[in-house]
Design brief:
The chain has 416 residues and is an alpha+beta fold. It has 2 domains: 244 residues, Bira Bifunctional Protein, Domain 2 (BirA Bifunctional Protein, domain 2), CATH 3.30.930.10; 89 residues, Rossmann fold, CATH 3.40.50.800. 38% of the residues lie in helices and 21% in strands. The protein has 15 helices and 16 strands. Helix 1 packs antiparallel against helix 5 and helix 5 packs parallel to helix 9. The longest helix has 17 residues. Adenosine-5'-triphosphate binds next to strand 6, strand 10, strand 11 and helix 11.
Length: 416
């Protein structure tokens, strides 16, 4: 028996409505802000992620699904959504269109990680990208969209943490300060941190090893090293969030796992998730587009992990309404069954959710099926009903039934 690959999950039909609900809330939230959907390929040239995500990030150094195609090109299944959107923005000349550029995506992403709760090898993201504005208003707009989306899912206890990691000028001084701080401890830190120490010491703050975490809590804060421009920007973002009534805490430990961030970084964390507590994360990446060969274009965005979001909804028992079926059409004999199927088609044409028997079941078995699936009404057609052009419509919640003309069925069902 062939089994599902490790770190992947099926969404079975009985649970699909949960996904569809969250996806609908994602689309509706994004579209309220004028973001339009973008769809880019599931795989891209490996080079895009190496340059876009950054070759000191965990994603590029150890998590990518990379393969050679039959033409000998190195391809990678997308580990995140931003690099592909940025590539498409540049390649399609979208910088010449309406600015700011605002788009969102609903995608699956792939990372070779150790599977555990909230950590999969194929997972799903809802993300938004806003290009062309370096204003604090753009950061606030992106955070407001993220906040509105999470609120729409009705989950509670989610906290917004923000930080600024400055620009490449102020970050350089900070990197030096971090190296000086970590120098006496580096021998006791993990192998990854020793390499991060050389290449990108900020990344050390993001280390998940307990042995390393105990040193990061007392590390110097980026906020003490921000240049004037970065400080003013961060103050602007915080003021706007307060004005918008979006609660946040400043957390100087947040650096994010991707190399491309600058200035604002943020995470929405939930206490319902355990170790993988970040449900949505994002920030500003003003150098990314240029790094990928485009004209310098400021950018800000986020991505939410949909599996983690669904885990919170489940833990908090958030009720999610599923569209219920409207009416089951039962046929008693061969001729009535044919009529049942024709009537079902007419009612579907009217927008109703209708089923009929496909297994040549007895009337009793048809009722059992309709009951199991939650049909509120069952319209029965037998020889006499067929002759009269009527159905005997049974209300499943009471044992009452009524005769309804075939032509009136749609209105009758809607009226109930
Ligand atoms: P983490 O610190 O949990 O590894 P990350 O910094 O790698 O997260 P991002 O690249 O910012 O995550 O991705 C945005 C969101 O996507 C995360 O906040 C999380 O909700 C989700 N996510 C990331 N990796 C996974 C994964 N392997 N499985 C499930 N969800 C994930
Ligand atoms: Mg990660």
């Amino acid at each position: 028996m062939i089994q599902i690959p490790k770190g992947t999950k099926d969404v079975l039909p009985a649970r699909a409505y949960l996904w569809q609900t969250v996806e609908r809330e994602a689309r509706e939230s994004a579209e309220k802000y004028g973001f339009k959907e973008i769809r880019t390929p599931v795989f891209e040239h490996t080079e895009l992620f190496a340059r876009g995500v950054g070759d000191t990030s965990d994603i590029v150094t150890k998590e990518m699904y990379t393969f050679s195609d039959k033409g000998g090109r190195s391809m990678t299944l997308r580990p995140e959504g931003t690099a592909g959107v940025a590539r498409s923005f540049i390649e399609n000349g979208l910088a010449g269109g309406v600015m700011p550029f605002k788009s969102y995506y609903l995608i699956s992403a792939f990372r070779y990680e150790r599977p555990q709760a909230g950590r999969l090898r194929e997972f799903h993201q809802f993300g938004a990208e806003l290009y062309g504005s370096g204003e604090p208003a753009a950061d606030a707009e992106i955070i407001a969209l993220a906040h509105r989306f999470l609120r729409a899912t009705k989950i509670s206890g989610v906290e917004l943490r923000i930080n600024s990691i400055g620009c490449k000028h102020c970050r350089e001084k900070y990197a030096e300060a971090l190296r000086a701080y970590f120098a006496p401890h580096i021998g006791e830190m993990c192998e990854d941190c020793r390499s991060r120490y050389e290449k990108n010491p900020l990344r050390m703050l993001d280390c998940k090893e307990e042995g390393c975490k105990k040193y990061t809590s007392a590390a110097p804060s980026m906020l003490d090293y921000l240049c004037d421009g970065c400080r003013t920007h961060f103050e602007g973002v915080k003021e706007l969030l307060s004005a918008l009534g979006i609660a946040y805490t400043v957390d100087p430990r947040i650096v994010r796992g991707l190399d491309y961030y600058s200035r604002t970084v943020f995470e929405f964390v939930s206490d319902a998730l355990g170790a993988q507590s970040t449900v949505l994360a994002g920030g500003r990446y003003d150098t990314l587009i240029e790094q990928l060969g485009g004209k310098p274009t400021p950018a800000v965005g986020f991505a939410a992990g949909l599996e983690r979001l669904l885990m919170i909804m489940e833990a908090q028992e958030i009720p999610v309404a599923e569209r219920l079926p409207d009416c089951y059409i039962a046929g008693m004999d061969a001729a009535s069954r044919v009529k049942a199927q024709l009537i079902a088609e007419e009612l579907r044409e009217q927008g109703l959710v209708v089923e009929c028997d496909l297994l040549d079941r007895s009337l009793k078995a048809q009722f059992k099926y309709a009951d199991k699936l939650g049909f509120p009404l069952v319209a029965v057609i037998g020889e006499s009903e067929l002759a009269a052009g009527e159905a005997e419509v049974k209300d499943m919640s009471r044992s009452a039934s009524e005769r309804v003309k075939f032509a009136d069925l749609a209105n009758y069902i809607r009226g109930r």
